[in-house]
Amino acid sequence: MYALKQEQDKYTNTSQTNTSQAYLVDPNLIRAAGRIYYTHCEVHPEIEGQAAGVAINRSNYRGKVIFIDQPALLPEECFVHLSQIESSVY
Asked: Source organism's superkingdom (predicted)?
């Protein structure tokens, strides 16, 4: 039972270092997320402004526009919030 508890702690640890790392996103990911978001806005102008951000794969830069603030992500994905995309100058 103790070993099971240790395994759960490994995945549910919310220490200060983990939360601060969540906001550090690779600039290349932000650029790729921006391209995905702006392409989405061009193709679907009727729903512009409703997105929360982009869920993007860190290894191949494929992603999808997300409409909720806290999405469930795959292990290799990260969430780039719309404010990061719009404030990034590249």
From this structure: Bacteria
The answer for residues whose C-beta is within 8 angstroms of residue 53's C-beta and 6 or more apart is 33, 37, 65, 66, 69, 79, 80, 81, 82, 84, 85
The answer to whether position 19 is within a domain reads no
**Model confidence over 9-50: pLDDT tens digits?**
545 444 444 443 446 778 999 999 999 999 999 999 888 668
Q: Which secondary-structure segment (H or E) carries 53?
A: strand 53-57
Number of domains in the chain: 1
Range of the domain at 62: 25-87
pLDDT of residue 87: 87
Report the residue count for the chain. 90
